[in-house]
Amino acid sequence: MGLTSHPRHIAWLEVEIESAPDTGLGIAPHTIKDVVAILRHATERGLAVQVWGGGTHSGYGNPRDPDLIMSMEHFDEVERWEPDDLTIVVGAGAGIADVESRLVERSQSLVMSERPGRGTIGGAIAAGVSPLRRGRLYGIRERVLEVTMVTGDGRLIRSGGRVVKNVTGYDLHRLAVGAFGSLGVITSVCLKLWPTPPAAATVTLDDPGQAADITRPLALLDVNGVTRLYLWGTDREVDGQVARLKGESAPGHDWPADPTGAWGWSLRVPPSQTSEAVARLPDGWRHVAVHGVGEIRAGSESPDGAGELREWAESLGGRLVMTRGAPDRFDPWGSPPPALDLQRRLIAQFDPQRVINPGRLAGGL
Amino acid sequence: MSLVADLRAVLGDEDVLEEPVELHLFSKDASLIRGRPACVVFPENTDEVAEVVRIAEQHGVPIVARGAGTGLSAGASPTQGGIVLVTTALQEIEIDPPNRSAWVGAGVINLDLSKQAAPYGLHFAPDPSSQSACTIGGNVANNSGGPHCLAEGSTTSHVLGMEVVLAGGEIVVLGGDAPDPPGLDIKGVIVGSEGTLGIVTRALVRLLPIEPDVRTLLMDFPSVEAAARTVSDVIAAGLVPAALELMDRRMVEAVENWLQAGLPTGAAAVLLAEVLGETEGVVSQAELIADVARANGATGIEIAANKEHRALLWLGRKSAFGAIAQLAPDYYLHDAVVPRTRLVETMAAIYEIADRYDLTMLNVFHAGDGNLHPLIAFDSSDPVVDERVHRAGEEIVAFCLDAGGALSGEHGVGLEKRDLMRASFTELDLDAQARLKEAFDPAGVFNPTKILPEGSRCFDYGGIRRELPDGVWV
After folding, report:
1. Is the pLDDT of residue B142 over 60?
2. Taking a C-beta distance cutoff of 8 angstroms, is the pair A328, A317 a contact?
3. Count of structural domains within chain B
């Protein structure tokens, strides 16, 4: 494994960018001007820059070994939280958990990963990782109202706005979601927050069919074969729902961590195929499946059986994406996405020398 | 061969119009800006759309795609001539209840989709006021909203996939029922691009289950400010209703005079709020909203007693623009958005501007997400009034932007608002958007001159040498 798996390199290699040598260096810029300077430098010299948030999504794709690792740790400020408007402007390097712990005082949430660990807001957006509550509250792209980023060739651009509804111009900010930095490095974002209602309960069911009565639950998960239904609302509402269901209930929400293992997977299938997908997981794979969405997160000790699973998923228009493992042993993304030429042309407009996370995106872009 | 002859060879004679009266019919959308197309075509499938794109490129003429023509920003006005491509023959609806989605032809009318999905207990969430006329293709092109987008988001949140004809007539299927397709989210940026990046022929849309219960509240207030404050307070209390709409006295009177929907004509402002969900939930949410309204001095609070009553209240709201016809031959409206915390002062400013220009101003808007629709009723044949209307409109937009708002919430930029884009974005921001357009449509075939002001891509960035503008965003 190369530099990519060692975030500690960043701390001891942090230096002023003026004196930065060409290769083998970690940099943690403090200002947007620094980010601009670093990326212009990288573009001039054709360097590969890996952008580092919390390192929690660093296993995706098949990146080129970086010449530079740029940590966004200093872009961690909450610039502006408007609780009465349910919006927040925050630096891309801010930890999801840190920001959530502030929002709790007004019963609000980012509605990003439930168990983010060291994950940052910018990292989750760049990787396009959605919360388990996405069946009810939508995926991460619906939270992003505005993105400020520095393009691969060092231009500072902004798209979207700081209001909850906006069709002004092209949605470059949404294009940045899941783009793995291929357009630019996100420096700050404005996000749509969501209120957390007062009551919450988690009900364990024998099978997902028992939840059919609940029109739009917050989430219905299969955690290693155990069905968990997540409810929220007013006290009366949640009490009423719990009373109607057969199953053991506990107050609050106990969210599962992503499945462990040397290899990590994200299986994506049409929602109606979720149970079938779980049944097809190779022996020994741990999983968290999101019913109604078709997303199955899995962990395993080897990639055995993954090829067959991918073939099945792709035959349904789905995907098996490797989120952690050895890209030299298993192709992380599978079949290339459609409109690859158009994707190349788009990226060329923003990162012409392909300096940010080159090769990381699906299709080897 | 001539353009029309080439098109007729592919589409047949009857699907290509070129008579002056026919061209006039398709010379504008619902905005005030008119163009003049060379011809109007009605392709019947995606392959025909692709052929039209290739023919347009060969002849070097632009294509303006159009659904029902209900757009309000001149996005579908063929001001550069060329071909108007009408999608109304693309009528497929294929509902997939287990996956809660549907493949829908671009020409399908928004409300027809929800009607067809209803037997499966499903509906399409975006519900623009024009939903009984506007098409899914138009909704996708404009990222349309509607009252119920407050809780569920605009069209972009409900497009899972699409079939699109790109430059060169290339047909591509993007996205699908499976979540998170890898690669750049190209479909995501096509939504809301107003036909400038390609032509969407079919969309795979998300359908939501119809909620078991609903409460619709009608609340009247002694002042617009009290109603606006109620909106802010409801959101601040941590409740996002399904819809939260505000109408001022003049608007209510116009609607009542026409429809008798039972809206209170005596109040300075009326709020229409709706909560959806299970019975226990909607009852407690409706109570919370009523409490907030009372604390802000609501003089009447009525809860729709039944389905018919609810339908009538919504008919009143959604017919508002139609009711203007009684007052004046034309109307001009902006759809700027402000942060919800700034609603009270923004409404006060809007009335002050209208009074200063001596204009008839009515307001009906999506208050819950701060999306204003200040509407000026006037006669555009009077050039003096016309000038005042546009100056007042620009002042309103400027105020909203100063308040931290956005130029357009759901109607799109089109031609009408494109020169105001410079007030929202820097030169570099607009250049980035122009680069996006260039990557999709290097020949400039798809709806040219819309969205971006002229000169957006005018400067050569000069590689990496250009300095940052002083002090911006740093």
Report:
1. yes
2. no
3. 4
Q: Nearest Cβ partner of B192 from A171, A350, A362?
A: A171
A284 to chain B, minimum CA–CA distance in Å?
24
DSSP label at residue A288: E
Give the torsion sign (CA, A38, A42, A45, A47).
Answer: positive
Helix (H) or strand (E) holding B277: strand B269-277
Q: Which domains does chain A have, with CATH numbers?
A: 3-72+347-364 (3.30.43), 78-195 (3.30.465.10), 199-324 (no CATH)
Task: Check CB contact under 8 Å for B464 and A43.
Answer: yes
Task: Please give the residue range of the domain that contains residue B230.
Answer: 213-322
**In this structure, what CATH number is given to the domain that contains residue B348?**
3.30.70.2740
Nearest CB among B142, B193, B238 relative to A195 is that of B238
Interface ipTM > 0.85: yes
Nearest-CB residue to B438 (from A82, A338, A349): A349
Q: Does residue B462 sit within a domain?
A: no
Tokens 């959530």 locate to A100
- At position B203, the amino acid (one-letter code) is A
Burial of A119 (0-12, 13-18, 19+ CB in 10 A): buried
- Shared domain check, B314 and B244: yes
Mutation target to probe the B interface, by most B beta carbons within 10 A, among A109, A150, A165 is: A165
* Domain CATH for B67: 3.30.43.10
Tokens of A8: 């500690």
Other Cβ atoms less than 10 A from the Cβ of B172: the count is: 16
Looking up residue B175, the CATH number of its domain turns out to be 3.30.465.10
Do residues B340 and B378 share a domain?
yes
Burial class from Cβ neighbours inside 10 Å (0-12, 13-18, 19+) for residue A309 reads buried
Same domain, B171 and B257: no
pTM across the whole model: 0.94
DSSP label at residue B249: H
Q: Give B448-470 pLDDT, tens digit per residue.
A: 999 999 999 855 443 333 344 44
Q: Could you tell me the two tokens for A240?
A: 């009423």
Please give the pLDDT value at position A342.
98
Contact A154, A43 (CB under 8 A): yes
Tokens 């990787």 label which residue? A127
Q: Of B122, B287, B84, B36, whose CA–CA distance to A234 is shortest? A: B287
Q: What is the pLDDT of residue A4?
A: 38
Alpha carbon distance B168, B443 (integer Å): 9
